[in-house]
Amino acid sequence: MKRVVFGVAAIAAVSAFAMLDDDAALNAAREVLAKMTLEEKTQMLAGSGTMTLPAVPRVGINSEWTMSDNSSTVRPSLDRWNWSYPEPKTENTKLPSLSALAQTWDVAWARRHGEVLGAECRDRGVDQLLGPGVNIMRTPLCGRNWEYLGEDPALAAKMCVSMIKGVQSYDVAATVKHFCLNDQEMCRGTVDTHADDRTLNEIYLPAFRAAVKDAGVLCVMSSYNRIDGIWASENKYTQSGILRDRWGYKGLLVTDWGGQHTTEFAVMNGGGIEMHRGDRIQYLCQPSSNRFPLAEAVLRGDVPAATVDNMALHTLYVMAKTGFLTGAPRRTGARNTPEHQRVARDEGAESIVLMKNGKGVLPLDANAIGKVLVIGSGADLKQCHKGCSGEGNVPYEVTLYAALTNRLKEAEVKLMPFCAKLEHAATDTSNATEAGGHVELKDADKWCTEAELKAAAEAADVVIVFTGTELGYQENMESEGRDRVEFDLPAPLQKAMHTILDWKLPRVVVVSRSGSPVGYTWTDKADTLVQTSYLGMEEGNSIVDVLLGDVNPSGKLAQTWPKTYSDTAVAQCGTYNKTNVVYNERFYVGYRWHDKKAIAPLFPFGHGLSYTTFEYGAAELCDDGLSVKIAVKNTGRVAGKEVVQLYAAYPGTKVERCVKELKAFSKVALKPGETKVVELRITPRDLAYWDEFNHRFRTDAGEYELLVGASSADIRASTRAVLAKTEFFAD
Ligand code: BGC
Q1: Which of 16, 173, 290, 345 could in theory staple to 128 by disulfide, Cβ–Cβ 3.0 to 4.6 A?
Q2: CATH superfamily, domain at 349-559
Q3: Closest C-alpha residue for ligand 1 atom 11
Q4: Which residues are catalytic, by number?
């Protein structure tokens, strides 16, 4: 039920928890704005501390508006003036990263993910969550891929819409970030990016657009980079032109921290609330300093008063929507509940991708295992406190090793490191690490010889090899502020993998964790390969649930897994550098690139196996003549879930188009032998391309091929639709 309100006073009396409708929120915001002085309005447009906007008690804003990162937890509360955490550090549930959420291909999980974060924000008194991040995985090297939703704009758009609705259902404002073209961390604060309009609109904007138009996101964060020479935070074309004018965005725009360079210029170009870091916070934002540089600019006549009014109105509008401004009852939250921890575990399990299961080693039979050897100390390394603005602080964290030990109580579960010491020692012992800069060695006693490792492996019923990347700052780790320097896993680790797999033991399960595709050289030797992203506090339990078959894997890759870095678009086009990045590969990102160039990936976008098998029937058009329905049957012996994917191809196109593009997907649960008809709904707008001459999306009349598959490379059925007329769309 929507609340109907005529004034601030009336709002508090209404008890329903639906957010105020837009008009009522605007009216409430206008009432408060009318009472504010110029100084107070400008004060609202800059952070009053690391994560706050100021209170203005004179007009009834009695407390500060509080923000917090991130997309998978509510980051611990920060010091008022800097990035340190006052003790005791606040604790919150840590859910899987967004790269994992994307691998669920399930909007219901995105909704739950958002609801948990919304509830935990409310319990902490956080009004604005700084997530989700929806930048596109353009290069596997980007240090923040794990904070984003994969390589495909349609997948990212659908998942972020659902997540945002979940967050905002708790009267907390979500923030979609980083707007835009912030698709690498290397030199993110200086790099100049250039994408042609078609590429921008078809690949890099759809998730932002969906957040604004379909989810009603209340906040947008601009990015650090430049776009066509102009800082994203000061860029009129993207901020005023696209976000406000084209999409009709009414919410709050906030800069990334320290990402604004010239206040006045930014304000004149659609810029947002200026968030600072370091000394600038104290210098500019401390109300007691009595500095109001923006007000001074208005008084000088350099900035129109109406521009400041408008910006303050956006902020007050968001405050009104959430109930913060009006004192309306807000939904209460909770944190660290068993329910939230269960979401972490189940969402994690749902995101895991079974890449290979050649000899049917998985699922393991818990009752038949006497001895398990886990190789790789990363399997017992806690992760949740890592990741810069993506980090968390959890009441507990279950590693894979701990989960195995808990679960297989009767079995002997042993953990040994990779024996890379000897290889590494030859080059550099001063910085000895387990696998060449991969995992920091914590305990020198953990070294073993290769013979010792082999003997332990041979004595075990099952060997679980845990490999992949880590969150952190070192080379080959994934982190904010820097990209990985190499696509491949470190050479000593690759070598260790070959060594272990060459032993040809009967039951070896490789579990690889990363937020991005990484280079493997040994996959043809591995019968069984499980890919996981960073799964948060319940990571170990989620993985064990899948390994033991309590959960039948149903995750699918949200990214193409190239064989080598040199196969990727940015490598072949030479479009990845530190200074001036021209997106010359255009819209050929991920599978679009591999399709165009006929380069077989190691694992395709959308790939993921199950412990059961699915049979697809014939694809048929629905009554609207465009959507597709298809019967899918579980032909195996256990229940499972399949992600049915709909791609469009353009046989009769007169303009350049991709070989195929994802348009819809649906995850269906099937009991053994069960068949369900899955409907994949699309509209003509879904088939549109950006018409550079008319500056609009356009769908041409003609024939479209609709491909239904289990991955982008495993198309099981197809049908054709004909559109009678060409249509243009406003955006
Ligand atoms: C990151 C943002 C984050 C902000 C506040 C920046 O460095 O890029 O994603 O929300 O810090 O912590």
Answers
A1: 173
A2: Glycoside hydrolase family 3 C-terminal domain (3.40.50.1700)
A3: 257
A4: 256
